[in-house]
Design goal:
The chain is mainly alpha-helical and about 20 residues long. About 85% of the residues lie in helices and about 0% in strands. It has 1 helix and no strands. The longest helix is centred in the middle third of the chain and has 15 residues.
Length: about 20
């Protein structure tokens, strides 16, 4: 499934926003 991929992509903005 691509559920883990979606979680990874969803977390990118937070990582970059810090």
């Amino acid at each position: 499934s691509n559920g883990e991929y979606l979680l990874f992509v969803a977390n990118l903005p937070f990582e970059l926003n810090e």
